[in-house]
Every structure is written in C-alpha cells, then in structure tokens.
Write a structure and sequence with these properties.
By secondary structure, the chain is α/β, with parallel strands linked by helices. It is built from 16 helices and nine strands. The protein has three domains: 209 residues, 3-Layer(aba) Sandwich (Rossmann fold), CATH 3.40.50.300; 81 residues; 78 residues, Arc Repressor Mutant, subunit A (Orthogonal Bundle), CATH 1.10.10. It binds adenosine-5'-triphosphate and magnesium ion.
Length: 411
C-alpha cells in the first residue's frame, strides 16, 4: 500500500467512534458493577462537557451489556421526545418494541385483558409495537400508569424467554424537561415509572447520558433521583491516555506516518486531553504529515494554522451567537486565575470590577449567566457554582478576543 492510500484514521465529529477509544477503564468498571445488579438499586448518569466522549462510550456499553445477557433499548432524546408525556411514552414504546419484536407471545383476543390466553387458540404473534400499544391503550389511568403496565407486560413476556433484563439508554438526556406551564411532566414521569417498576423487582435499568446540566435537572424534578443514579463524570484524558489516542491509530501495519515524540507532546498540550480536540488536531496533522512525507520533509505540527481552523470550526459559531455584553462577561471569566474550574458570581463580579470600565452587578451577572447557560456556554452545578460548558473556551477567548477599552458612556 502506498503512503497516500492509507486513509486518515482520526474521527473528529459528534458521535463518531474514534479509531482507538483511550482510557475509560474506571467508567467500564463502574458500568460492569451496575450490570451485576439483580434488583436495580442504581441507574447511571453519564455526564461531561461537550465533546468529552459520552456518546461513543455509551455505544461501547452496548456490546458489554449484551454479553452479560442484557437487552439494549436506545434513543437520542431530542427536544421533541421531551415536549409531552405522550411523546415520552411513544418514545419508550418504540424503543422497547425494537427489542421485543423478535420474541413471540400468545395472541390476545379482542376485549380480553393483556396477556390473557385462549387455550383453544395458542397462535403466537411477535411482541410488536402494535401489541405493546394495545396494552398501553387499554390500561386506564395516568400516562405513567399506562407506561408502567406496558413495561410490566413486556417484562412478563421477556421473562418467559429468559431475556428479562433490559437497559434503556438515552443520550442527550439533558433535553428532558418538565413543563409546568403546559402541565406536562415527562421528566418526572420517566423517573416515577422506573422507580416504581424497579421497586417491584423488574430489572429494567436507565442509563442517561448528557451535559452537566442533566443530573441537577433530575434532582430538581424528583429529589429521590439523587439516590437512584450513580453519576459518572467523564473528564479529559490523562497524558498517557492522550498518547494512546494519538498513537495507537497509526501504529498499525503500513501506516507511512510516524509522529515524533515532540509532536505528540504538542498535540497533548494543545488538546489538553479533550477527545474531540485530539481527533481534530490529529486529523489535520496526519494530512499535513502525509504531504510532507511525500516530499521527504520532516514533519512539523503547524500549531497556529490548526488552531485557527479549530477556532473557526468549533468555537466561532457559538461565539457569533451571543451579544457583545455576554462576550465581555465570558472574557472576564477567561481571565480568572483558573478559568476551567468552578467560579462564583462573587468572584466574577470582583474580576469584572478590575477589568472592565462598565462592571456587572451580581443580579445582572446572574441573569446573564442564566441566558448563557441556556445557550450551552455555561452551566451551574447544584451548589450554585458556575463553569464553562465548552472545554477550552477560556483559551479561545484569550486568543481571539479583547473587549473594547474605551470608557462606556452611562445613560
Ligand atoms: N476515549 C476516547 N479516545 C479517543 N477519542 C475519543 C474518545 N472519546 C471520544 N472521542 C472522540 O471525541 C469526539 C467526541 O465524542 P462524542 O461525540 O462521544 O462526545 P460527547 O461527549 O457525546 O459530545 P456532545 O456533548 O457534543 O454530545 C469524537 O470525535 C470521538 O471520536
Ligand atoms: Mg454526544
């Protein structure tokens, strides 16, 4: 194989499986422990900043769970699944049907309760969406009662085939919300349903993946969520893990490219161990090295050019969508001693006083942080402290932005 035929292996992009998934042993151990539960006492929240690797890790949980006899029902929770309780119910039924339709159940007679078998007519039909929907529709009461009855019915059927343990894995679960003004509580319904069926000993487990706003949201909806979930927070990779993520994909036979240890260190530093940035930088470096290799040149990492491309691809879009005043506020945060760590409104206001001619009052800062949180730039933890929701945002701001220095005119 000629050097130019070796395809660039790196995969920057939301949900794209990396050529080598580095690290995450701690998370696998935690997940394996939850898989051992006969009675579900703990479910999982898998959380972390944008691009840290939640979606791809969740995908690798699937074969792990299936090897241990679990079935796997999954979906992305788009905003639409979260609009109403009915939409949530439809989501759960659809996901469940995908895994149940491969088993058959005795056909129900019209007008007879779910699961009733006419002895004279033992015809078997797939446990399809239609069958589940008929159980759902024929159950009286609240939407949560209907979902519970359907899940219970499915469990009874699955159990007879010795396939009774099911994981419901939902990505982008931070989209789940209750909407009191519309009297729709899909998030609370989801928690109530799983809490109730788990209490009955039904081994259906929830694995919810999402941004750091997810867990506080769950606990706000139902305080018992605190005890119901084991929170696993994905953080950046260590230097050793970063090196694996960088090097393993090109250690395979016939890769014409070798990264010099200095290049590897540069990539570790520039990415700060954040998986998306590792994939992004490596993809660029690989392309450049392939060309330099063809010309017999020594490979050098073009840090500035890659940085600019990353700024344009990853940060600029988010930055463009916010107001000048919001940018000033974020710039102040970027100037804190530890911009990548948590900060309080007090610290922010004090920093602003030193750096801006027009400062922020605590209540104004509070309001602006709330709207920046809605935009996914900032998040607030349960103790009321704030952080950037986008990794390395502080570095980007310091690199590319300075507030106007003219004194602003008060009106
Ligand atoms: N452990 C890892 N080792 C190497 N690369 C990884 C690892 N985890 C994730 N990546 C890469 O990082 C990028 C982001 O991964 P992913 O989409 O799973 O993140 P995410 O946390 O789900 O992001 P978002 O918050 O936007 O949903 C992808 O390009 C993926 O290939
Ligand atoms: Mg994701």
């Amino acid at each position: 194989m000629g050097p130019l035929e070796f395809k660039n292996p790196y995969r920057p992009g939301a949900g794209h499986m990396p050529p080598h998934l580095a690290g995450r042993e701690r998370e696998y151990k935690e997940f394996d422990r939850l898989l051992e539960q006969d009675e579900i006492l703990e479910n999982m929240v898998l959380t972390g900043l944008r691009g840290v690797g939640k979606t791809v890790l969740l995908e690798t949980f699937k074969p792990r769970a299936m090897q241990r006899g679990w079935l796997w029902a999954t979906a992305d929770l788009s905003e639409s699944a979260s609009i109403s309780e009915t939409a949530l119910a439809q989501r759960i039924l659809a996901d469940l049907a995908l895994i149940t339709s491969s088993i058959t159940v005795e056909e129900q007679q019209p007008g007879q309760p779910a699961g009733f078998v006419a002895p004279s007519d033992p015809r078997r039909v797939p446990l399809s969406h239609e069958v589940l929907a008929s159980v759902y529709d024929s159950t009286p009461g609240l939407i949560s009662d209907k979902i519970k009855a359907t899940l219970e019915f499915a469990w009874h059927q699955l159990r007879q085939q010795d396939k009774h343990r099911v994981i419901f894995a939902y990505d982008e679960a931070q989209n789940l919300s209750d909407h009191a003004e519309k009297e729709q509580f899909p998030l609370s319904v989801l928690l109530d349903v799983f809490q109730s069926i788990q209490k009955k000993g039904i081994p259906f487990m929830l694995v919810l993946a999402g941004l750091p706003t997810l867990f506080p949201k769950l606990v706000d909806a139902r305080t018992y969520a605190e005890r119901m979930f084991r929170v696993v927070t994905l953080i950046k990779l260590t230097d050793d893990e970063s090196r694996d993520a960088i090097l393993k994909p090109i250690e395979v036979a016939n890769c014409p490219i070798k990264f010099h240890p200095d290049s590897v260190e540069t990539i570790c530093h520039e990415s700060a161990g954040y998986p998306y940035f590792i994939q992004f930088i490596c993809r660029e470096v690989f392309d450049v090295f392939i060309q330099q290799h063809a010309k017999d040149e020594v490979g050098m990492v073009p840090v500035d050019a890659i940085q600019r491309k990353l700024d344009a691809d990853f940060f600029a879009g988010r930055w463009a969508k916010i107001t000048d005043r919001q940018r000033e506020l974020l710039w102040v945060i970027a100037n804190l001693a530890h911009p990548d760590e948590e900060f309080t409104i007090q610290e922010l206001v004090e920093e602003a006083r030193q750096r801006l001619t027009k400062t922020f009052s605590p209540s104004h800062a509070n309001q602006m942080l709330a709207s920046l949180a809605e935009r996914g730039m900032i998040y607030k933890n349960r103790l009321g402290k704030y952080s950037f929701a986008v990794p390395l945002l502080g570095r980007f701001i310091l690199r590319t932005y300075g507030p106007t220095t003219e004194p602003s005119i008060s009106v």
